[in-house]
Amino acid sequence: MNQIRPKKILILSADTGGGHDAASLAVREALDLHYPGQTRVTIVNTFRKLAWWPANRLGDFHRFLGRPGLGHGMMAVIFHEEARPGPGQFVGLEFFYVLMVQRLRKFLMAHPDHLVVTAHPIVTQVAARVCGRLALTIPMVTLVTELARAPWTCFHPSAQRCLVGTTELAEQAQSAGVEAHRLRVTGLPVGSGFQPSASPASAHRADLGLPAELRLILLVGGAEGYGGPLAAIADSLARRLSDCHCQLVVVTGRNVALRAQLERTVFPIPLQTLGFVSDMHRWVRAADLVITKPGPGTLCEVMAVGRPLLLFGGFPGPEQVNVTYLRDRGVADYAAHPRELAEKAGFLLSEGTTNLGEMARQSGLTGAPGAARAVAQQLMTFPA
User: Fold this and answer.
1) Which side of the chain, N or C, has fewer Cβ within a 10 Å radius?
2) In the predicted model, what is the mean pLDDT of residues 66-80?
3) What is the pLDDT of residue 155?
4) pLDDT tens per residue across span 264-276
């Protein structure tokens, strides 16, 4: 009996925010779940493994860009050019190409995979150029890990398939030169645990050992935590919600100092801190309201479960576009300052208001819990 040869898939990802790694892991999980034994997936942190210094420290620099002030100011300049290509953008891409071409070319030639998937805009541009110069016949798929707006570098007309999360991104891709027959709207991939639940949030709170009768606000600062603003938001929320029969869980990610600071503080409502968690879906299901910055990965995870959102902060560019996109759909609200955020949370959680339930309903309608499977199906259409 002939044994089926597994399809080898190489996913070129990055640890630079935007949910690139999370989306990549969700796709691998979906392939393993729905096509067991039929694929062999390798995920590579492209900058750290295949770039020379200083490009191999891009993840660290991205954490600096996440800070309000100078970091956000630099991000605004970067996105201004990313929205419409300019000389600075092309110089930047040439910089990364020079620092990546040698190792990436050697890696691709040593790993003749059946399919290459790029999950980061800079990687997409560099990989397309390397594959073109090597005249490689390996199909390339671009996985766009944004929600409503993306840098033009996310798209490349030479890719055999371009997978996007929304029709808005599909329109942008065509404007960037991607032919319509190469486009697929799949949704943004999230882990299999992010699914709607027939059980109420209170039941999921009980499963986590939390007081089921107290409504839960989940405050999320991303994988790296959000530093000072997250502490100020937690303080404002706790003060405003002291009479709302609520509890607060703060996810600080890898920000150990922030977690320690919160644990030393006495709050007027029950507050629990979590570091970097691998079961985020359980906490989202237990929440009545999720408060987070408008990063695409977290937003799509929350909407896949069908929970309402209250947003703060965010990078200039795509993340600010996400705010408008979700407010227009009745999924989320936004506040620029901790006290304003707390006031809006208090209003949503007050007795008699129906806003929270309607936001949850719209969140479920906007979410795409089956996106990872849809992406997996697209990848399996390529021959082994």
Assistant:
1) N
2) 50
3) 95
4) 999 999 999 999 8
Q: Which helix (H) or strand (E) holds 183?
A: strand 183-185
Which residue in 359, 360, 375, 29 sits closest to 192, CA to CA? 29
81 plus 186 within the same structural domain: yes
User: Contact, 184 vs 161, CB < 8 A?
Assistant: yes
pLDDT tens-digit readout, 84-126 = 566 667 788 899 999 999 999 999 988 877 899 999 999 999 9
Domain extent for 315: 201-366
Domains in the chain: how many in total?
2
Given a contact cutoff of 8 angstroms between Cβ atoms, the answer to whether 375 and 118 are in contact is no
User: Please, which residues bridge with residue 43 across strands?
Assistant: 11
The reply to whether 168 and 34 lie within a common domain is yes
Yes or no: say if 156 and 49 are a contact pair by the CB < 8 Å rule. no
Q: Residue 277: helix, strand or coil by DSSP?
A: coil
Looking at per-residue confidence, does 83 or 153 come out higher? 153
Q: Token pair of 166, please?
A: 């929304």
Residues 352 and 374 in one domain: no
Q: Based on the domain organization, do 310 and 253 belong to the same domain?
A: yes
User: What are the start-end ranges of the H helices in the chain?
Assistant: 20-34, 46-50, 58-65, 70-83, 87-110, 121-134, 167-175, 201-207, 228-240, 256-264, 280-286, 296-305, 318-328, 338-349, 355-366, 371-379
| Same-domain pairing of 261 and 326 | yes
Return the pLDDT at 81. Answer: 43
The residue type found at 286 is: A
Q: List Cα–Cα distances, 38 to 6, 96, 271, 380, in angstroms.
A: 5, 34, 45, 9
Residue 310 bridge partners (DSSP): 291, 333
Q: What are the pLDDT digits (tens) for 366-382?
A: 999 999 999 999 999 99
Do residues 349 and 246 make contact, with C-beta atoms less than 8 angstroms apart? yes
CATH code assigned at 329: 3.40.50.2000
**CA atoms of 290 and 218, how far apart (whole Å):** 5
Of 116 and 133, which is predicted with more confidence?
116
